[in-house]
Amino acid sequence: MSCMKTHTFKGGIHPPEQKELSENYPIENVMPSTNTVCIPVTMGGAPNQPIVNVGDIVARGQIIAKNDAFMSAPVHASVSGVVKKIETRVLTGNCEAPCIVIEANGSDTTSFMEPLDPFTCSKEEALKRVKEAGIVGMGGAAFPTHVKLNPPPGKEIEYVLANAAECEPYLTIDDRTITEKADQVIDGTRIAMQILDAPKGIICLEDNKTKLIPILCDAINKAYGNNATRPDGTGNAITICVCQAKYPQGGEKNLVLSALNREIPSGGLPADIGCVIQNVGTLVAISEAFRIGKPLIDRCLTISGGAVETAKNLCVPVGTLVGDLIPEIIKLKEGVAKIISGGPMMGFAMPNAAFPIAKNTSGVLFLTKNETHLVDEDPCIGCGMCLDVCSCRLNPVLIARSLKANNIPMAVKYGLLDCVDCGTCAYVCPAHVRLVQRFRIGKCICRSQTATKQGGK
User: Fold this and answer.
1) b vs e for 335-355, b when ≥16 Cβ sit within 10 Å of the residue's Cβ?
2) Mind listing the pLDDT tens digit for each residue in 16-27?
3) In terms of pLDDT, which residue wins out, 451 or 139?
């Protein structure tokens, strides 16, 4: 797999990248001005239950909420301090959920796990470590990582793909993570390969990040004892694949098609075609969980947008309220028109900055009116532009028409459940139809109807 060839997929778009705003700013470790965090009880997997009470003193890294179900990931205190409240707060996506509010007391007390050698422990011990560390997918989905690293019987995994495409505009935290923590990225990749018994790993970059190739090659060579036979590291078990800079290159379906020329079947998973995909931040978290016993309690993210005086890449305790970083850390200009948690294509518009940074928060954007597209919908004209750009090769216009007619089965037939909500169709729609919002609502209705049918059996 040579990094000299650029790989791609059919469809996609090229929105303005806007990465120059933050890509050269190193990651800063900061604390909220209030010294208080508001940690969601559940951040991926089955709903957790608090196991602490108001007034309890907790240490950084201590489990504060959990669920014994396999499809769950525990939550840990990200600061040492006192539990002040357990209450419902608004989270990313504008949903309300229980949160544990902890006020830091200035203590440096930690409750980390003992280091564990990932290459001598058993697979069961390794999976237990990943779960106990509360690691979830940090690219956005927050899927429990121990579940992804334990595919069903019969699913032989050949590749671990490190997703460093970072195709969303504005976001640069994956870029900075590789720049500053390449050794941990490679270590986490090797650990994932060990757990999955996968012989090959691939670091997938877009061709606007080729500056990272020498950094990754050095890390690969160090990990394998400088045994690389080629400048791009392709003599080792971990190689580099350069993909065309195009949105949504970082989507799982597009990444495996570009890197491996394999297609995930409808309703299937990457494991069905012999691979597992992990975000580079997740791989760093895996490395830290084994090497220093650290749970996933810090989140690195990008702060950017035209309404920010200086864009930044930050590392904050999980549960930090965005508003508590203003104005000491995040200095805003006048004219903030929209706040987005995540990237501009798949992120969620928020009414204000009073929401916590979660394990899967890759960025927060403060956009001006010129950077947003606040216009009313017009009737669909059936131009077909959405068909040309859909990387999943679906028919968005027919899905939308089926939903408008309240014909959920027909929408599913046209690919509703295969849609990944990337927003390329809405981006090019000359009528400004809110396609992504319609599809998300349609999926909720579909799942609700399915659950009702199953409950009636």
Assistant:
1) ebebbbbbbbbbbeebeebeb
2) 999 999 999 999
3) 139
* Residue carrying the six token digits 């408008």: 404
Report how far residue 396's alpha carbon sits from residue 385's, in angstroms, rounded to the nearest whole number. 10
Tokens encoding 133: 């560390």
Beta bridge partners of 298: 317
Query: Hey, is 134 helix, strand or coil?
Result: coil
- Secondary structure element (H or E) that encloses residue 150, with its range: none
CB atoms within 10 A of CB 428: 17
Q: Given the structure tokens 């019969």, which residue do they identify?
A: 154
Question: What Rg do the C-alpha atoms of the chain give, in angstroms?
Answer: 22
Contact between 330 and 345 under an 8 Å Cβ cutoff? The reply is: no
Chain-centroid distance of CA 186 in Å reads 18
- Any bridge partners for residue 205, and if so which? 164, 242
**pTM across the whole model:** 0.93
Per-position DSSP letters for 257-291, written without gaps between them: HHHH---PPTT--GGGGTEEEEEHHHHHHHHHHHH
Cβ proximity of 30 and 357 under 8 Å: no
- Please say if the pLDDT value at position 451 is more than 90: no
- In the chain the domains, ranked by start, together with CATH numbers, are 6-22+114-291 (3.40.50.11540), 31-112+295-371 (3.10.20.600), 385-455 (no CATH)
Residues sharing a CB contact under 8 Å with residue 371, sequence separation 6 or more, in sequence order: 305, 306, 337, 338, 344
Q: Coil, strand, or helix at residue 154?
A: coil
* Nearest by Cα to 18 from 429, 432, 363: 363
Q: Is 73 helix (H, G, I), strand (E, B) or coil?
A: coil
Cross-strand partners of 81:
58, 104
Instruction: Write down the pLDDT at residue 226.
Output: 60
Contacts of 353 (CB under 8 A, 6+ apart): 321, 322, 323, 326, 339, 364
DSSP annotation of 104: E
